[in-house]
Amino acid sequence: MNLKSLKKLKSLSILVLLGGGGIKTKSRQFTLAKTLLIIGLYSLVFFFLGFFILNLTPIRGIIFSGNSNLNPTEKKLMNDLNLRLIFITSELEKLKSTNQQLKDAILLGDSTLIDSLNRANSTENKKDNPYGGSIFFVIQQLLLKGHEQQTNNIHFSKPVNGYISRGFNPDNGHMGIDFVIKTGTPVYSAAGGYVVFADYTINDGYMIIIAHSDGYITVYKHCSALLKKTRDIVLEGEIIALSGNTGELSTGPHLHFEIWKNGKPIDPQSLLINN
Question: Distance (Å, rounded) from C-alpha 92 to C-alpha 129?
Answer without folding.
Answer: 51
